[in-house]
Specification:
This protein is α+β, with helices and mostly antiparallel strands. The chain folds into 3 domains: 2-77; 84-207 and 278-382, no CATH class; 208-276. Helices cover 37% and strands 26% of the residues. The protein has 10 helices and 13 strands. Strands 5, 6, 7, 8, 9, 10 and 11 form a 7-stranded mixed sheet that branches. The protein has a 4-stranded mixed sheet with strand order 1-2-3-4, covered by helices on one side. It has a two-stranded antiparallel sheet with strand order 12-13. Strand 12 and strand 13 (342-343) form a beta hairpin. The two termini are 32 Å apart. The chain binds zinc ion (2 copies).
Length: 387
């Protein structure tokens, strides 16, 4: 818990408190009255971040209401930041070979045209999600995008955040670096990308949770079915051997009651296991970084186009190829006939209504053949994961 202790020490100091580390997991705090009040602390407080908890110490952890207290103290600070990092790393010796690993274009050919130093702006977005059903899952999902090339960062991001956290030298970008780096994308463009990229990633991330949810639901439903089937069978047997009308009426009423109860219990079950998912964008960090930019000529039939891929010196690897439509979970990109967009396979797939394939980057709104709305398609796929 040293990270949490250091973070709290930093924050409390900024808020006017005097802090003193009293041990590896302890912090002595002398806070001014308004801060004391907001955090519910005595004048002289000893905060304990670990298992060691001397008498009178206030336990602080990520559970309980400390997250909320600290969140209220932070307000909107830390939600947005811009940072420049200039790693001293030699550019890759064999960019052609790197491209060979990174580029998979089943319906096009490519050729490296050139490589040169450049600047980029990565936007690293953090989303907090809460999935609530009979159980609860909370967590943070991260998505990064290179605003010069349109590449999306996935698993690479964990390493990137580690590298950034390990570098305490926080530099604000110089005017020259800001001029050389691409301007931030308009909010609508970022939103469109997040809407396409986040739901399938969240869905993959939550897959084990959703599978076990499904298993519990199936198990409970089977039990319910079995129990009511037994009741039904017995009542039906008694009805068949009823000796008079009164008995027949009683058993018929019983059968109806069993059916009603079964439907009601099924509704309860659906209600219990219904999934409520909320996703909140909590942080955006713009990382201004010198990269090594590869220009790649792409040919498809008679068309050609140049796209860029950046080699990231912090990760020491080439970014994935851009994805201009679709989620881009796979490495392969299809190149469209009309404007040579790079998309994932699904984004060149057949229209769900007329069956004709079309490029969702050329036609983001609707199928050009039959006019079927692409939004309806998205909703059908990710309806339960709306952000
Ligand atoms: Zn169509
Ligand atoms: Zn296209």
């Amino acid at each position: 818990m040293a990270d949490l202790r250091d973070f709290m020490a930093d924050l409390l100091e900024r808020e006017g408190a005097a802090v003193d580390p009293a041990g590896p997991d302890l912090l002595e705090v002398l806070a001014p009255p308004p801060l004391r009040e907001r955090l519910g602390l005595p004048e002289m407080a000893l905060l304990a971040f670990g298992a060691e908890r001397p008498a009178g110490a206030v336990p602080v952890g990520l559970d309980g209401d400390w997250l909320e207290r600290v969140g209220a103290l932070l307000g909107e600070r830390g939600r947005r930041a811009v940072r420049m990092v200039v790693p001293e790393v030699a550019p890759p010796a064999d960019p052609e070979r790197l491209l060979g690993h990174a580029l998979e274009l089943p319906n096009a050919v490519w050729r490296l045209k050139g490589a040169a130093p450049a600047w980029t702006r990565y936007r690293l977005l953090s989303f907090r999600y809460t999935a609530l059903s009979d159980e609860k899952r909370e967590g943070v999902l991260r998505l990064g995008l290179n605003m010069a090339t349109g590449a999306l960062l996935d698993g690479e991001q964990a390493v990137l955040w580690d590298r950034l956290a390990a570098d305490p030298d926080w530099r604000t970008p110089t005017p020259e670096a800001l001029r050389a780096a691409p301007s931030p994308w308009p909010a609508e463009r970022v939103d469109a990308l997040v809407r396409a990229a986040l739901p399938p990633r969240l869905s993959a991330h939550l897959a084990p949770f959703l599978r076990s949810l499904r298993r519990r639901l199936d198990r409970d439903r089977d039990r319910l079915h079995e129990y009511h089937q037994d009741l039904h069978r017995e009542a039906a047997k008694r009805l068949a051997t009823a000796r008079d009308d009164a008995e027949r009426q009683r058993e018929t009423a019983r059968l109806e009651a069993i059916a009603r109860e079964y439907t009601g219990k099924l509704d309860d079950l659906r209600h219990n296991y219904a999934l409520a998912l909320t996703v909140e964008r909590v942080q955006a960090l713009d990382l201004i970084l010198p990269v090594h930019r590869l220009s790649v000529l792409i040919r498809r039939r008679k068309g050609e186009r140049v796209v860029s891929l950046d080699w990231n010196p912090l990760l020491r690897q080439l970014d994935p190829p851009p994805v201009e439509a679709g989620a881009g979970l796979e490495r392969a990109r299809l190149v469209c006939d009309e404007r040579l967009h790079l998309t994932d396979a699904a984004a060149q797939g057949p229209c769900v209504s007329c069956g004709k394939p079309f490029c969702r980057a050329c036609h983001p709104q609707a199928c050009p053949k039959c006019g079927h709305s692409a939004q309806a398609e998205d909703d059908a796929m990710f309806g339960s994961l709306a952000v």
